[in-house]
Amino acid sequence: LVFSWIFNEYPTFVKQDTRRFISQETGNLYIAKVEPSDVGNYTCVVTNTVTKTRVQGPPTPLVLRSDGVMGEYEPKIEVQFPEVVHVAKGSTVKLECFALGNPVPSINWRKVDGVPFPRKVDMRKASGVLEIPYFQQEDAGTYECVAENSRGMNTVKGKLSFY
């Protein structure tokens, strides 16, 4: 299954960037810092990649709160990967991490033992999803997602074990 979101009218889909994230685990849409241009209706679309059929949910309106200006605040991690993930040899593992915050937090990944990521891990694409293809014994270990902005930093860790 693939999750996507329509903004107001089809065919305008939400584009993921540093501010917007769609979890492919839950289907939830997250907006790190809501802007006036985000106001509108959001409709979840679930696509079965095998049969190419899609279903969509009801539109969900997003409105700006009128009770004041949102101040700056440190990152609050809203999407995190499990504490322990068992990964089969040769499979691809995807870890999700996304934080709300103002200013919009940056998301960075690191292996806790300090060993740099192998070349097969594309760090340019990483941000909210760390993808490790063709998982091997040496990829096992504790991984950390670091969400940071000028107001502070938060981290989550999880262990990938090899089987």
Structural class determined from secondary elements:
mainly beta
Q: How far apart are the first and last residues' alpha carbons, in Å?
A: 25 Å
Number of domains: 2
CATH homologous superfamily classification of the largest domain: Immunoglobulins
- What's the order of the H and E elements? EEEEEEEEEEEHEEE
Strand content: over 45%
What is the class of the largest domain in the CATH system?
A: Mainly Beta
Largest sheet: 4 strands, antiparallel
CATH topology (fold) name of the largest domain: Immunoglobulin-like
Query: Helical percent range?
Result: under 10%
Please compute the radius of gyration using only Cα atoms.
17 Å
At CATH level 2, the architecture of the largest domain is Sandwich
Characterize the overall form: flat
| Total number of strands | 14
Structural features:
Immunoglobulin-like, signal, 163 residues, cell adhesion, mainly beta, flat, 2 domains, cell membrane
